[in-house]
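Box 3.1. Reading complex inputs
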Amino acid sequence: MTIERFIPALTRGAVALIGTLAVGLVAVLAAGLDPVTTLQAIIDGALGSPYAIRQSLTEAVPVTLTALGVAVAFRAGLFNLGGDGQIYIGALGAVGISLLFPDLTPALLIPFALGVGMLGGLIWGGIAGVLRAKLRLSEIITTIMLNFIAFWIVSYLVHGPLKDPGGSGYPLTREIPEAAQLPVFGDLIPSGAVLMLVAAFCVWLLLERTPTGIKIKGTGSSASASHFAGVSMSRVTILVMAIAGALAGLGGAVSLQGDQYKLGDFFSPGWGFDAVAVALIGRGTAAGTLITGIAVGALRSGIQSAQGTAEVPSSIAQILLAAAVLFVIVGNAEGAGQLVRRSWARTRELASE
Amino acid sequence: MSDLFDIVTSATLYAAAIRLALPIFLAALGETFAERAGLVNVGLEGMMLMGAFGAVLGSDVTGSALAGVAIGLLFAVLVAAIQGFVSINFGGDQIVCGIALNIGALGVTAFLVRAIWEGGNAPQVAGFSAFDLPLLANAPFVGVAVFQQGIFVYVALVLALISWWALMKTGWGLRMRGCGEDPLACESLGIPVKRLRWQAMLICGACAGLGGVFLALGQLLTFSDGMSGGRGFIALAVVIIARWSPMLAVPSALLFGAVEAFALRVQSSDLNVPPELMLALPYLATIIVYAIVVGRSNPPAALGRTYVRQ
């Protein structure tokens, strides 16, 4: 009985994995690379040394934090495509505080800057939540628009008022003071990675162990039933979008304080969309999102450091993510489910004959 | 202040508005078909991007802009076909599929640009240039504003009329709209829901693709990563603002074209406004206009709901 319940899930996972790897193979061959050495180079680059592991974790943190937020919204039936905008606003908050109060001790400045970054993201995500709850504007459209608005605001600031006057002319802010920079534990574990684990645990706690989590999931699975049960839809909507924004904002702040130290035009290489894919592949659960996020971080970092040995285009990561999401939806789809169930039933009939 | 007055009253502003509205309008027109048939297609952005990329590739390889149009349309329709298989045949989540296709299109185009062209940059290619419409082009004001455009503007106007007629005045259109209101009832009347939805999805891909083609061959004459710049999402808003009407999509898209044109003109004027903030204006305008209009909108009843024949 239990095995029968699990086998379709396992086949789905296996099919998604094999399908994604097949797409990756096609892409690698199309780029004129040797699949074996390319894979070797990527794995080496991602996990081959303590430094590589540290880089992989650093790369995983902003994506995973943002993806955890996307997951919370997704469980309430909402799509937060605004990760990038929230990341930019979060990083802006963190860089602002870090540069305004350089004389504070690290014990004060680090949490202060992270907190303001989180608050910035919370507001940016919250705007989409309020627009959805109060005016019925689709968050799919508004979050994308807010991405562009945030990007151009930051672009204006780093080209103008916040531009480093002593810099080499690039549109970047000054480097944040050391007191605002996040420590790395034992030269291996960036503190952002610890925050990422804590955030994943909090999201699990919220979704699985609190009444609010029940409301969030209820809204996602049946809006009308939740409404009749007395759950305020608009409150849940604003709450989850604010949480999603806060986590993405934290991701931006952590990347600023733990990795990049300066804010510029190209701060996020597209973490917001990566995060949507990560949350969808992780099926909106805290653990699934965390594991997928770390894997994607390792993949991106591996591709980056493989540049020396094999010229692997970084866009392969996006292609793999998109393919994985497509395979996962097809696997979960009603129509595909019917097909699988039917063929499974047929196989069983054949076996029992 | 007089500068601002000059900008708003210049005929070239309106010419630019029409040009900039065009890709948004074409994508919105396609989406109108899809949504009327009950399919939310969030993948517009990806379809535009693939259309633009295919157009540049086709034009570069053959040297003919017309071949570019054909390849661009083909690429966009391929994306629509994936969306069709996943959401119509498999009954997968339409929105999630569209999001995945957008991410995939960004990745695939970025990948191919680097794989195909030396140095990882798309070249300048042959495109379509504007021409003067006989007689009308010399008319005061409207001559410059309306009648000195490229061929795409007139194609788009004809498409708007045909779409309105096909969707609103024919039995085919009625059945297609039926699929968006109550697919089960349609099925019980013997209407082939699946086939009609496939038609709508492919039309949507072709229109959005044409929007991307114009962006590439009518404006930039090259391809750059993410050049659709959120226009696919602005088009989603335009569909709602136009209340799912092909004809109302014309003025709705023009509104956003005008905002973008205005922002560009202010940037290049003597007015002391930061250019980056002007570039944010179209996106802010989208939210504002959408917020004003949405309360009165009435979407197709079965929009976005999975429908798989039992």
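In summary: Chain B has 13 helices and no strands.
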